Amino acid sequence: MSSQNPDPASVRDDRVLGFLLDFTLLTVATVVVWVVFTGVRMLVTTGGAMGAPTVDSPGTMLGMVALGFALSLLQWAVIGLVVGGYFVYFLTDGGQTLGMRVAGVVLVGEDGGPVTRDQTIQRTAVLLAPLPLMALASVFIPFVGFVLALLLMGGWLTVEALLLFTDDDAQRLGDRIANTLVVESTA
């Protein structure tokens, strides 16, 4: 593809700034979800102290462990919905996340027109591709699973950043798949 982004190099720094702002905001949202689910899990596992039936049979213990796993998987699903919903909502409605707005960049189709919901979903799906593996590692591998999950996301974001900085049009993989470009905002 020929370069359709007027000056991709000038967009890279602003784009990274916008992503870092979005990442910070979404990290706060993720921590809130994490704290809420941790509180729910604590209430479930300490239910005996609150007047709920005590865990005195293997069946009850197995049920509580299964409930804990289910709550953990639900927690990851909610995180995925929050992060994915943020990007799809803001990018479909004006082509800018809050971070992109501050950084002065906008997402457009490769033809220069507004992005469609399908494009924003495709682009976001690529960004969140490692989330299911992160969830499984975090939930089912005691202690080191969370670290593995963080390494998976860090590795994926590194791949995306490398593509962003080596592509002639400053596109990451999600942009290539969705046929989108991030350009300087004219507004």
UniProtKB/TrEMBL annotation:
Name of the molecule in the record: RDD domain-containing protein
The keyword Membrane is annotated on this UniProt entry: yes
Record keywords: Membrane, Transmembrane, Transmembrane helix
Major site of localization recorded for this protein: membrane
Compartments, as annotated in UniProt: Membrane
Residue ranges of every copy of the RDD domain listed in the record: 14-179
A UniProt-annotated Pfam family: RDD
A GO cellular-component term linked to this record: membrane
TM annotation in the entry: 20-44, 64-91, 133-157
Membrane topology: Multi-pass membrane protein
Alphabetical list of InterPro entries matching this protein: RDD (IPR010432)
